[in-house]
What we know:
This protein is of the alpha+beta class. Helix content is 34%, strand content 15%. The strands form 9 sheets. Strands 5-4-3-8-9-11-10-12-15 form a 9-stranded mixed beta sheet, with helices on both faces.
Amino acid sequence: MSDNQHITTLTLEELKTFLWGAAVRLRGQIDAAGYKEYIFPLLFFKRISDVYDEQFNAFVQEGGEEYAREQAQDLAIRIPDGAHWNDVRQVTENVGRQLVEAFIAIEQANPAVESDGRRIGGLEGIFGPKDGWTNKAKMPDHIITSLIEDFSKHNLSLAACPADEMGQAYEYLVGKFADDAGNTAQEFYTNRTVVTLMAEILNPRPNESIYDPTCGSGGMLIKCLTYLKDKGEEWQGVHVFGQEINGLTSSIARMNLYLNGIEDFSIVCADTLAHPAFLDGSRLRQFDIVLANPPYSIKQWDRDAFAHDKWGRNFLGTPTQARADYAFIQHILASMDNKTGRSAILLPHGVLNRDEDKEIRINHVKTDCIDAIIGLGRNLFYNSGLESFILICSNNKPESKKGRILFIDAEKFTHKQGKQAYLFSDDIAHIMEAYNNENDIPGLSKYVSIKEILQNGGNLNIKSYVKAISDNQIENSTILLSDFNDSRKRVQIALSKLSFVEEPYHIQDIETTVLNEFNRDLWEKVTLGDVASEYSIRIDDPSKSKYDYFIGSDCISQYDFRIKKRASTQNITSAQKLFQSGDYLLVRRSLYGSDFRERAPRADFDGVCSADILTIRENHKKIVDGFLIFVLYNKQLWDFIVSNSSGGLTRRIKWKQLSSFEFYLPPKEIQQKISDKLWAAYELKEAYKKMIAATDEMVKAQFIEMFEGQNYATKPLAQLISKSFPGDWGLEDKTGNGIKVIRTTNITNDGTLDLTETVTRNISDTKLQKKLLKKAIFY
């Protein structure tokens, strides 16, 4: 056995850098999509060789060389003589052939174990296809030798790289290969932030069984186990099952599981629809948890066989040849345990309302196994910008959820960066809050009865049930408190007119602060630099930092008090700036070809921001906490920025210039009052969004209650209309002396008339007699 070099512990970042550096050596030699075919087998080979040496040397210290050889026969992975990493490293010619011989010897020495009707573990075929290694035109000896030497620089034993760290590095490499491979990545990689959400919802428990019928690189299975690990719960008793049609990808999944310290697994390479691998007699084997990201809308599948499926997976119906989505969904439903089974499936939005799936979808809704439908937005599939959603099903829905389905519109929590989108930890927390809430959250989630869904023809489109709250429905964050009081009075009057409100609401006005009421004799003239300072700390490579969030200027909207949009630091490798909670982020660059916009929100989290943003920190010796928002959204400040910025097509302001801006500063007790009023107004604005949606739902519910189930007589609409004036109303009058005519563009979405822009026409006296009547209805 090899004498291990002195073991140096590798940090996770060092390991990631080393692995990606080895992969980059292949650029120009093979396509990016082929990296995984070579790097993953080498990583696995080096890892098991170093772990074998580590365990063997421990046996030597315990009882000597002979004792170690005896004990090595019982190791989880055995390496035959002549098939060790160091054996291959010594070869100088036909290196690829020697490598393949070592791979085959290791695979044959480690067969799977037959137990409980399945094959557990085993290394048969785990190194994937072998022919590429012996093709010298594709992989000449010097390239393979260089890769081997790169990997030989580091010890990858358990002492140097614990299983958790190695697993994270492997997952990192899977993600990097997915980024580099572009549109081929979907077959083996699912966005890990989405997988985290799915695991949170499914809530795996110790000793349960977990199955992924299209497992790719195994990331979903591993996430369920790390979910238990992170909670400090028993995970080694969990039974892991996976099926994957691609041979190399299924090998990657098995390596991934081994490198994450998981040995009790069964991964089968086969077509899930044509040849389901896990059976229980004449039916599919059933599991506690099923999760999947099936290939979406595939056309090449055996529909005729599925129409007569001997395992009964077409119990909802047979999908069209053009889209097999519901074939995979039915396979998953049939694979769920009748009592404990639950599933999470990532799917494209078309599944929710396609006409060709209507009957199948209606049958699915009738089963009452759909727990929730969570919309996530675009760019979560690696080879498509299609919108995606998570379908949550359960055979054990709580009583409170039976007979209804929860719809969650979480599109706003999906943050796009580059070609891909992500969910952040607090986004996942928001979604989980909605999922665990038994009540609707206006603008985010809504429970809908199965009866209503069936009345809508089985339509499961999320936006048909969860109504968005538009920023256009309210004023911006500078709304005056008096305006808000007025709007509340309008709501009060409207509510009092509704039959189900017995008495009008009496809402006391919020006191409106007028700055002129304060004694300005006590205000002192200061500069911005007197009350605040620039905070500028460089972060060289944010992707390797501890910070999750990157804020670019596009993440900040006009008059934002808080930051609502965030990007991930995952792909930000160039130097940026640090900011901390409580700092203000002022966008110091004008938009292309236009002026500056008032953008200077306050951060309530730590992160990294663009160099086009000034990070400003309050000096609390001079001003109270939160008062700086009053200064930063002062019109005079932005006039100052416009006149003092420099540049061509886009202009910038520097802190040195901005810090000289002068204004009058009130005493701290007045600052506190102003600050309290401004932040209260902002919070009221945010709360008012929810109130608007809640009012809409309340009115809608009242109408449903009034008319649903009533045996009112029905009449044709024509009998209820006294006059109708279709037809030609004459030519347009260019002189402006004609009769004003109302067009469809004059009727607003809320049913009122907007007459700011009208046309005039030459209308005859006969037609003029058909004059516009008050109380007429336009449609």
